[in-house]
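Q: Phosphate transport system permease protein PstA, please. Structure only.
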Amino acid sequence: MNSAKKSRDSQFSDRVANVVFYAIAGIICLILAALLLYILITGLPHVSWKFLTSTSKSFQAGGGIGIQLFNSFYLLILTMIISIPISLGAGIWLSEYAKKNRFTDIIRTTIEILSSLPSVVVGLFGFILFVLQFHMGFSLLSGALALTIFSLPLLTTNVENALQSIHFTQREAGLALGLSRIETVWKIVIPAALPSIITGMILASGRVFGEAAALIYTAGQSAPALNFSNWNIFDISSPLSPFRPAETLAVHIWKVNSEGLIPDASQVSAGASAVLIIAVLIFNFGARYLGNRLYKHMTGNQS
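A: Structure for Phosphate transport system permease protein PstA:
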């Protein structure tokens, strides 16, 4: 009788715990959905092709976010060009070559600390080092280097975890076939981990795209007019120049709300926020879709 009663009590406790956990998860999902719907419902009516392509206004109504949107994507590309090779090298070394000792433990602890730093701290560090010490000024390059510091820990951890998730028997199979260690890594381990690596990189891109605090102090808060017929990267009027100041979309939202100089500041802010949210959602859902497709493709080929 006692054992039966204990079994019923444990089952009841499990059901209560499940209800509580589902309720908490449901509340969190409702809050997130309400926030996203509010931003989209209030912002999408102000989004149009003219809004997406026209330049912003400083003191007049009717401005757009064309230059800020271009700056955001260009800065993201620059950051990924710098971050991806470094994170791949660091992740491969930590996963495949680094021995477990105090030195590697310190490196992993440092990566964890860097990944938890507030973005404003990274921005102030970038301002002191890149803007002032290296005399880069407020520029896309300063912003990309600051965001590299911000994204490197995330990307390195993602690469390391993706490589470690590959079973050791695949490495042994490569070595048994006469491949060297580096050939085994490049031809067997990395291709098998590629879906997870790409998914993590796209998710990190979404986080970088929506970053603002680190860019206020590095990329600047101005968006000069661009001459799209000028492809000289050393001319700051060129859209491809990494040496020009570049206000991004997230910084523009912060600036519009903080200054309040534009007559239609609330409409511009709402529209820009909706565009930013949509872009981040595309990054997130696109990463999962692409990761699943790559995984199914590779497992289909292997079968």
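A: Brief note, in case it's useful. Residues 1-46 form one domain.
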